[in-house]
Amino acid sequence: MKQTTTGGRSNLPAELSSFVGRRHQLAQVRSVLAAHRLVTLVGPGGVGKTRLALRAAADLAEEYAEGVWVVELAPVHDPELVADTVVAALRLQDASGASPVDKLVAHLQERSLLLVLDNCEHVQGAVASLTSRLVTCCAALNVVATSRHALGVDDEHLLPITPLPVPSPGRDGRSPKGLMHYDSVRLFSSGPRRAGRPSR
Predict the structure, then answer these.
(1) What CA–CA distance (Å, rounded) separates 145 from 38?
(2) N or C, which end of the chain has less CB nearby within 10 Å?
(3) pLDDT of 10-33, one tens digit each?
(4) Given its phi and psi angles, is residue 46 left (phi above 0), alpha (psi -120 to 50 degrees) or beta?
(5) 70 DSSP β-pair partners
(6) Would you call 54 exposed, middle or buried from its count of C-beta atoms within 10 A (0-12, 13-18, 19+)?
(7) DSSP class of residue 86?
(8) Which residues, 6+ apart, have CB-to-CB distance to 74 below 8 Å?
(9) Domains of the chain
(10) What is the pLDDT of residues 72-101, one digit of tens each?
């Protein structure tokens, strides 16, 4: 069985805004991935899990010979299509007729690669089953998942993501200089990222 990827070593999307805050959590992701094959960023919707996962993946890309690959699961409503969605994201080409899971195992089992599975909560069971199989069979694979809930997979390390701190109604809340000490305010005021400029 032979699969190939096309279009480079990564499908990471371009950053559209500056990255603000979360430096400690970025360091945590790197540290935890050194000890655990699967890291799940857990927290409520809109808290910034995806943004953190993508930035961490971009920072770690050079450490993986086959790069980093992002699978967006939000549009997937049928759990049976989770593995197919990962196959499509990895741009695998295979005419063998093998199952999507077997295709992924065959492709990934000897590759050093970081897989980002984004928005897993609504297909949690299927993602848990797939990641358990992949992590077991593919020794050089690491997975970062984002979800509102834990996947419940062996050796899964949970990294809770909470909202950025916001100003209190006290003195800092009335001072423009004081407001800029808050990452949430700096994120709101940073605006869109200019094309060609690196994120900070």
Answers:
(1) 8
(2) C
(3) 899 877 555 555 788 899 999 999
(4) left
(5) 116
(6) buried
(7) H
(8) 118, 119, 122
(9) 23-163 (3.40.50.300), 166-195 (no CATH)
(10) 999 999 999 999 999 999 999 876 789 999
**Phi, psi for 54 (deg, rounded to 5):** -70, -40
Report the predicted TM-score, pTM, of the whole model to 2 decimal places. Answer: 0.78
Distance CA 46, CA 55 (A): 16
- Is residue 179 within a helix (H) or strand (E), and if so which, with residue range? helix 176-179
Per-residue tokens: 149: 């809930």
Q: For 64-97, b where at least 16 C-beta lie within 10 A, e where not — what string?
A: bebbbbbbebeebeeeebbbbbbbebbebebeee
Q: Tokens 């961490």 map to which residue?
A: 56
pLDDT of 38: 97
CA distance 152 to 155: 9
Q: Dump the DSSP string for 88-149.
A: HHTT----S---HHHHHHHHHTT--EEEEEE--GGGHHHHHHHHHHHHHH-TTEEEEEEESS
Written as six digits, the tokens of 86 are: 């990962």
